[in-house]
Amino acid sequence: MFNTIIYEKKEDISIIYFNRPEVLNAMNKLMWNELDEALNLAEKDSEIKVLIFTGKGRAFSSGADLKESPKRTKQEYREYLEKLQKVSLRLIEFPKPTIAAINGYALGSGYELALACDIRIAAEDALIGSPEAKVSSSVTGGATKLLIDLIGPAKAKELIFTAEFINGKEAERIGLVNKAVKSEDLMKEAINMAKKIAQNSPLSIKLIKKLLNIAKETSLNSIMQYEVEACLNTVFSEERLERIKEFEQRKKKKGEG
Questions:
Q1: 112 has catalytic annotation
Q2: Which end is more exposed in the chain, N or C (fewer Cβ atoms within 10 Å of the end residue's Cβ)?
Q3: Domain boundaries in the chain?
Q4: Does CATH number 3.40.50.880 belong to domain 5-198?
Q5: What is the pLDDT of residue 69?
Q6: 199, 202, 203, 206: CA torsion to nearest 10
Q7: Is the pTM of this model over 0.85?
Protein backbone atom coordinates (compact mmCIF):
# COMPACT_ATOMS: atom_id res chain seq x y z
CA MET A 1 0.00 0.00 0.00
CA PHE A 2 2.83 2.39 0.91
CA ASN A 3 6.39 2.68 -0.39
CA THR A 4 8.13 4.80 2.26
CA ILE A 5 6.17 3.95 5.41
CA ILE A 6 4.52 0.92 7.01
CA TYR A 7 1.06 1.33 8.50
CA GLU A 8 0.34 -1.28 11.16
CA LYS A 9 -2.80 -1.67 13.25
CA LYS A 10 -2.55 -3.41 16.61
CA GLU A 11 -6.03 -3.50 18.13
CA ASP A 12 -6.77 0.16 18.99
CA ILE A 13 -3.25 1.45 18.28
CA SER A 14 -1.78 2.47 14.92
CA ILE A 15 2.00 2.19 14.50
CA ILE A 16 3.45 4.15 11.59
CA TYR A 17 7.02 3.18 10.69
CA PHE A 18 9.27 5.34 8.53
CA ASN A 19 10.57 2.73 6.13
CA ARG A 20 13.61 3.93 4.17
CA PRO A 21 16.26 2.33 6.39
CA GLU A 22 18.86 2.35 3.60
CA VAL A 23 18.96 6.17 3.88
CA LEU A 24 18.26 6.33 7.64
CA ASN A 25 14.60 7.09 6.87
CA ALA A 26 15.39 10.40 5.18
CA MET A 27 12.13 12.17 4.37
CA ASN A 28 11.28 12.84 0.73
CA LYS A 29 8.17 14.25 -0.95
CA LEU A 30 6.59 10.80 -1.30
CA MET A 31 6.99 10.12 2.41
CA TRP A 32 5.16 13.33 3.35
CA ASN A 33 2.36 12.44 0.94
CA GLU A 34 2.12 8.93 2.39
CA LEU A 35 2.13 10.26 5.96
CA ASP A 36 -0.84 12.43 5.00
CA GLU A 37 -2.62 9.33 3.67
CA ALA A 38 -1.78 7.38 6.84
CA LEU A 39 -3.28 10.15 8.96
CA ASN A 40 -6.43 9.90 6.83
CA LEU A 41 -6.64 6.17 7.56
CA ALA A 42 -6.12 6.63 11.30
CA GLU A 43 -8.56 9.51 11.58
CA LYS A 44 -11.36 7.66 9.76
CA ASP A 45 -10.85 4.41 11.71
CA SER A 46 -13.01 4.68 14.83
CA GLU A 47 -11.19 1.72 16.39
CA ILE A 48 -7.85 3.59 16.44
CA LYS A 49 -7.36 5.51 19.69
CA VAL A 50 -3.62 6.34 19.62
CA LEU A 51 -0.90 6.68 16.96
CA ILE A 52 2.77 5.77 17.43
CA PHE A 53 5.49 6.97 15.03
CA THR A 54 8.88 5.27 14.85
CA GLY A 55 11.57 4.30 12.36
CA LYS A 56 12.76 1.03 10.85
CA GLY A 57 16.45 0.26 11.25
CA ARG A 58 18.99 2.56 12.90
CA ALA A 59 17.03 5.82 12.75
CA PHE A 60 13.75 7.49 13.58
CA SER A 61 14.51 9.80 10.65
CA SER A 62 17.70 11.56 9.61
CA GLY A 63 15.69 14.49 8.22
CA ALA A 64 15.13 15.78 4.72
CA ASP A 65 16.48 13.76 1.81
CA LEU A 66 19.14 16.17 0.55
CA LYS A 67 19.52 14.23 -2.70
CA GLU A 68 16.16 15.61 -3.81
CA SER A 69 16.96 19.26 -3.03
CA PRO A 70 19.21 20.18 -6.02
CA LYS A 71 16.66 18.78 -8.47
CA ARG A 72 13.86 21.16 -7.43
CA THR A 73 13.05 24.57 -8.85
CA LYS A 74 12.26 27.29 -6.32
CA GLN A 75 8.53 26.82 -6.95
CA GLU A 76 8.84 23.04 -6.52
CA TYR A 77 10.72 23.60 -3.27
CA ARG A 78 8.00 25.96 -2.07
CA GLU A 79 5.35 23.32 -2.83
CA TYR A 80 7.40 20.68 -0.97
CA LEU A 81 7.77 22.93 2.08
CA GLU A 82 4.09 23.84 2.06
CA LYS A 83 3.16 20.14 2.01
CA LEU A 84 5.58 19.46 4.88
CA GLN A 85 4.07 22.32 6.88
CA LYS A 86 0.52 21.19 6.15
CA VAL A 87 1.18 17.62 7.35
CA SER A 88 3.10 18.85 10.42
CA LEU A 89 0.28 21.19 11.41
CA ARG A 90 -2.23 18.43 10.85
CA LEU A 91 -0.20 16.20 13.18
CA ILE A 92 -0.02 18.90 15.86
CA GLU A 93 -3.80 19.36 15.69
CA PHE A 94 -4.65 15.69 15.09
CA PRO A 95 -7.76 14.70 17.08
CA LYS A 96 -6.18 11.50 18.41
CA PRO A 97 -3.12 11.37 20.72
CA THR A 98 0.25 10.79 19.06
CA ILE A 99 3.48 9.34 20.43
CA ALA A 100 6.95 9.54 18.87
CA ALA A 101 9.10 6.52 19.76
CA ILE A 102 12.51 7.95 18.92
CA ASN A 103 15.08 5.32 17.94
CA GLY A 104 18.54 6.20 16.67
CA TYR A 105 18.91 9.42 14.69
CA ALA A 106 16.11 12.01 14.89
CA LEU A 107 17.46 14.97 12.95
CA GLY A 108 16.08 17.96 11.06
CA SER A 109 12.56 17.43 9.79
CA GLY A 110 12.50 13.97 11.38
CA TYR A 111 13.18 15.50 14.78
CA GLU A 112 10.65 18.25 14.00
CA LEU A 113 7.98 15.63 13.28
CA ALA A 114 8.69 14.14 16.71
CA LEU A 115 8.17 17.61 18.22
CA ALA A 116 4.76 17.75 16.53
CA CYS A 117 3.66 14.63 18.43
CA ASP A 118 1.93 14.94 21.80
CA ILE A 119 4.37 12.68 23.66
CA ARG A 120 7.98 11.74 22.96
CA ILE A 121 9.73 8.63 24.30
CA ALA A 122 13.39 8.27 23.27
CA ALA A 123 15.98 5.56 23.40
CA GLU A 124 18.75 6.67 25.76
CA ASP A 125 21.27 6.43 22.93
CA ALA A 126 19.12 8.25 20.36
CA LEU A 127 20.78 11.27 18.72
CA ILE A 128 18.48 14.27 18.41
CA GLY A 129 19.12 17.66 16.85
CA SER A 130 18.74 20.37 14.23
CA PRO A 131 21.64 20.34 11.72
CA GLU A 132 20.02 22.97 9.45
CA ALA A 133 22.53 25.73 10.25
CA LYS A 134 25.36 23.43 9.09
CA VAL A 135 23.87 23.07 5.61
CA SER A 136 22.52 26.62 5.18
CA SER A 137 18.89 25.67 5.73
CA SER A 138 16.22 26.54 8.30
CA VAL A 139 13.92 24.68 10.66
CA THR A 140 10.37 23.78 9.65
CA GLY A 141 7.33 22.00 11.06
CA GLY A 142 6.64 24.73 13.61
CA ALA A 143 9.78 23.67 15.48
CA THR A 144 10.78 27.20 16.46
CA LYS A 145 7.60 27.58 18.54
CA LEU A 146 7.34 23.95 19.64
CA LEU A 147 10.92 23.99 20.95
CA ILE A 148 10.40 27.22 22.88
CA ASP A 149 7.22 25.82 24.44
CA LEU A 150 9.10 22.71 25.57
CA ILE A 151 12.50 23.97 26.71
CA GLY A 152 12.38 27.78 26.68
CA PRO A 153 13.88 30.31 24.23
CA ALA A 154 17.48 30.26 25.49
CA LYS A 155 17.91 26.49 25.26
CA ALA A 156 16.03 26.39 21.94
CA LYS A 157 18.44 28.95 20.49
CA GLU A 158 21.44 27.05 21.82
CA LEU A 159 20.39 23.80 20.16
CA ILE A 160 19.50 25.43 16.83
CA PHE A 161 22.48 27.82 16.66
CA THR A 162 25.13 25.23 17.61
CA ALA A 163 23.49 22.47 15.50
CA GLU A 164 24.78 20.02 18.11
CA PHE A 165 23.06 16.69 18.73
CA ILE A 166 21.98 15.49 22.18
CA ASN A 167 21.22 11.95 23.30
CA GLY A 168 17.96 10.66 24.73
CA LYS A 169 19.09 11.02 28.35
CA GLU A 170 19.97 14.70 27.89
CA ALA A 171 16.72 15.27 25.97
CA GLU A 172 14.82 13.89 28.96
CA ARG A 173 16.82 16.05 31.38
CA ILE A 174 15.92 19.29 29.59
CA GLY A 175 12.28 18.32 28.99
CA LEU A 176 12.54 17.77 25.25
CA VAL A 177 11.24 14.21 25.61
CA ASN A 178 8.90 12.79 28.26
CA LYS A 179 11.02 9.76 28.98
CA ALA A 180 14.28 8.07 27.92
CA VAL A 181 14.56 4.29 28.10
CA LYS A 182 16.95 1.57 26.95
CA SER A 183 16.66 1.07 23.18
CA GLU A 184 15.43 -2.51 23.59
CA ASP A 185 12.55 -1.26 25.76
CA LEU A 186 11.49 1.63 23.51
CA MET A 187 8.53 0.10 21.67
CA LYS A 188 7.32 -1.73 24.76
CA GLU A 189 7.27 1.59 26.63
CA ALA A 190 5.51 3.40 23.78
CA ILE A 191 2.86 0.69 23.44
CA ASN A 192 2.28 0.62 27.22
CA MET A 193 1.79 4.39 27.17
CA ALA A 194 -0.58 4.10 24.21
CA LYS A 195 -2.61 1.40 25.99
CA LYS A 196 -3.01 3.58 29.09
CA ILE A 197 -4.28 6.43 26.92
CA ALA A 198 -6.55 4.16 24.86
CA GLN A 199 -8.43 3.07 28.00
CA ASN A 200 -9.78 6.60 28.41
CA SER A 201 -12.60 8.43 26.64
CA PRO A 202 -11.65 9.35 23.04
CA LEU A 203 -14.11 12.25 23.12
CA SER A 204 -12.64 13.63 26.34
CA ILE A 205 -9.09 13.35 25.02
CA LYS A 206 -10.02 14.92 21.68
CA LEU A 207 -11.57 17.97 23.37
CA ILE A 208 -8.90 18.28 26.06
CA LYS A 209 -6.13 18.07 23.44
CA LYS A 210 -7.78 20.91 21.53
CA LEU A 211 -7.96 22.89 24.78
CA LEU A 212 -4.28 22.31 25.53
CA ASN A 213 -3.30 23.41 22.02
CA ILE A 214 -5.31 26.62 21.98
CA ALA A 215 -4.43 27.47 25.61
CA LYS A 216 -0.95 28.54 24.47
CA GLU A 217 -2.32 31.37 22.35
CA THR A 218 -5.69 32.24 23.88
CA SER A 219 -6.74 34.40 26.82
CA LEU A 220 -7.67 32.73 30.10
CA ASN A 221 -11.23 34.04 29.77
CA SER A 222 -11.66 32.48 26.29
CA ILE A 223 -10.16 29.19 27.44
CA MET A 224 -12.52 29.01 30.42
CA GLN A 225 -15.52 29.59 28.14
CA TYR A 226 -14.34 26.80 25.84
CA GLU A 227 -13.85 24.52 28.87
CA VAL A 228 -17.56 24.88 29.68
CA GLU A 229 -18.56 23.81 26.16
CA ALA A 230 -16.07 20.93 26.11
CA CYS A 231 -17.32 19.67 29.46
CA LEU A 232 -20.97 19.85 28.36
CA ASN A 233 -20.12 17.95 25.15
CA THR A 234 -18.54 15.12 27.11
CA VAL A 235 -20.93 14.76 30.06
CA PHE A 236 -23.99 14.55 27.82
CA SER A 237 -22.49 11.98 25.47
CA GLU A 238 -23.59 8.32 25.31
CA GLU A 239 -20.05 7.26 26.17
CA ARG A 240 -20.27 9.23 29.44
CA LEU A 241 -23.40 7.29 30.49
CA GLU A 242 -21.72 3.97 29.69
CA ARG A 243 -18.56 4.87 31.59
CA ILE A 244 -20.51 6.08 34.64
CA LYS A 245 -22.44 2.79 34.61
CA GLU A 246 -19.17 0.80 34.41
CA PHE A 247 -17.72 2.90 37.24
CA GLU A 248 -20.74 2.21 39.47
CA GLN A 249 -20.56 -1.52 38.70
CA ARG A 250 -16.86 -1.62 39.67
CA LYS A 251 -17.62 0.19 42.93
CA LYS A 252 -20.43 -2.25 43.67
CA LYS A 253 -18.16 -5.25 43.04
CA LYS A 254 -15.47 -3.82 45.32
CA GLY A 255 -18.07 -3.28 48.03
CA GLU A 256 -19.27 -6.85 47.71
CA GLY A 257 -15.69 -8.12 47.87
A1: yes
A2: C
A3: 5-198, 202-256
A4: no
A5: 74
A6: 120
A7: yes
